Model the fold of this input.
Amino acid sequence: PDSVTLLENTNIGVLGGFLSFFLVLFVNQTNGRFLEMYGFSKACSGRIQDVAGMARTLLPKEMGEKLVKHFNAAHVAGYTGINCIGHGSPYSKTYFFNVYNEQNNLLTPEELKCLEHHDMDNSGLCMKEL
Done:
């Protein structure tokens, strides 16, 4: 009752204009950040294929396999880093990175421990370290 009377005297157009302007800036920034992280991950995929071919033919078998596993872990970590835009994503460390790591034995527990200092759900730095 009193709040309705208050709204009758308020110019909601100014508030709507401000919110529209703010929303456009926010969505643009969020989308740009997502596309940048997605681009890093796709570039990583191409380089993995290049290096995998060379590693498997030029390096000893065990060393080549380990190198390719580390590159694949970096690729998966890159997609996990996309989650850092703040809206939640299926690309979380728990439900994406850890699942792929367990299925494909990408990193050993010792290697994972070395990467614990990175907050994989809120940063793409783990991909860069890998």
Summary: Residues 12-58 form the longest helix (47 residues).
